[in-house]
Specification:
It contains 19 helices and ten strands. The chain has 385 residues and is α/β, with parallel strands linked by helices. It folds into three domains: 247 residues, HUPs (Rossmann fold), CATH 3.40.50; 38 residues; 76 residues, no CATH class. The strands form two sheets. Strands 1, 2, 5, 6, 7, 8, 9 and 10 form an eight-stranded mixed beta sheet that branches. A two-stranded antiparallel ribbon has the order 3-4. Helix 5 crosses helix 8 and helix 6 packs across helix 7.
Length: 385
């Protein structure tokens, strides 16, 4: 039996995600086990997930996954490099392959770019472009083009992650096979497409109260239909309260605040009224809005640069099928996997609980009560025989 991993957010899960699972089983056989390493209640763009992680994990299992693990928050809120590296570290011990969608599904092209990024020739070229004032994505693209490679491939969001997955696999000498599949449609499409829906468009439909269920697997639609929704806007005043009471030292300790960016962010937090005003005043050609979104969310959650670079102490199990239970048994030979809600003898457990409590402040309706992390249980789906 093959075991194939997917690093994901499912924010929310849609038909394109199920298509990916179907493609994996078409390639490797119907008995292939699919492991989804999913961001929890906070996602990589620096925002709360629209639906609670336990519900998204249940939807994934009912839509074809065998085991859903939680990508730890330090990985989930990292740059594309940290996001991919943390995911590959967790899955490498027990997965045969890592499947990911990309605008370019030519594995050799992606690996060629990856090897260039890992070469000794790349860092000085990147530094030259950064010193000219370019943002990191633009500098990386220009440096690759200086090496006579098609750097424009990394202008597409899924290709960026695809190359970071390949980098993490090669850097760790992982035995996992990279499995790119073609991602049709745009990651950021604002208009829903039945064949290739984007999570961005579905979040908009859900929040606007418009019809969205035809873009989502049936079992997932039933779960999401009455689920409380969460947005950054709903928790804006809570975030502002935190930002307005932070000390200089707390701002300086934030991730993504290098080269004095934390000081500019701090000044704007203390002089402007809204999150949009703060972020717009802080961003620049060099520093992208997504980077600032993550820095802002880390500030609210109390996460420091040290937190995001510390070793991952454990991984949470959110849901599984009978086949997933067998995979989990193997996984536990390669790391520490704790059930949802299981207390941990680690300072991370206290932070988990705190961040879980804060998630309830992003609820579009009434604020949700604290204490949810300790009450979580693993969802076990009994497959029919």
């Amino acid at each position: 039996m093959k075991t194939i991993g997917i690093i994901c957010e499912y924010n929310p899960l849609h038909l394109g995600h199920r298509k990916q699972m179907d493609t994996i089983r078409a390639l490797y056989g119907p008995d292939t086990a699919i492991v989804c390493l999913m961001s929890g209640n906070y996602v990589q763009r620096g925002a709360p997930a629209i639906v609670d992680k336990s519900l998204r994990a249940k939807a994934a299992v009912l839509s074809g996954a065998d085991l859903v693990l939680e990508l730890p928050i330090p990985c989930a809120l990292s740059s594309a490099e940290g996001f991919a590296s943390g995911g590959v570290e967790i899955l490498s011990g027990f997965c045969d392959g890592l499947c990911f969608g990309a605008e370019t599904d030519d594995r050799e092209t992606l690996l060629k770019l990856t090897r260039a990024l890992l070469s000794d020739s790349f860092p000085p070229l990147l530094r030259r472009e950064l010193d000219s004032g370019k943002s990191f994505p633009a500098a990386r693209q220009a440096a690759l083009e200086a090496m006579h490679l098609e750097g424009s491939i990394l202008a597409s969001p899924n290709n960026i992650l695809a190359v970071e997955y390949c980098k993490a696999i090669l850097s760790r000498n992982s035995s996992m096979e990279p499995i790119p599949i073609l991602r049709r449609g745009s990651y950021h499409d604002l208009k829903a497409d039945l064949e290739n829906p984007s999570a961005t468009s579905l979040r908009a439909l859900m929040l606007e109260g418009r019809y969205w269920k035809s873009y989502v697997p049936g079992a997932a639609a039933e779960i999401f239909e009455h689920a409380p929704l969460h947005t950054l806007a709903a928790g804006e005043r809570a975030v502002l309260a935190r930002l307005r009471t932070m000390t200089d030292e707390e701002f300086e300790a934030l991730p993504y605040g290098s080269e004095g960016l934390w000081r500019k962010f701090m000044h704007n937090c203390r002089s402007l009224s809204t999150l949009d005003e703060i972020l717009e005043a802080t961003k620049s050609k060099r520093y992208t809005l997504t980077r600032l979104d993550r820095m802002m969310l880390c500030a609210f959650l109390g996460l420091t640069a040290e937190d995001l670079t510390s070793p991952i102490p454990y991984t949470r199990v959110l849901a599984f099928t009978d086949r997933g239970r067998l995979v989990l048994k193997e996984a536990r030979n390669h790391g520490i996997f704790l059930n949802a809600g299981e207390p941990a003898d680690s300072p991370c457990w206290e932070k988990e609980c705190r961040m879980g409590d804060l998630y309830g402040l992003f609820s579009v309706g009434a604020a949700e009560a604290p204490g949810c992390e300790a009450k979580r249980r693993v969802y076990c789906h009994k497959e029919s025989t």
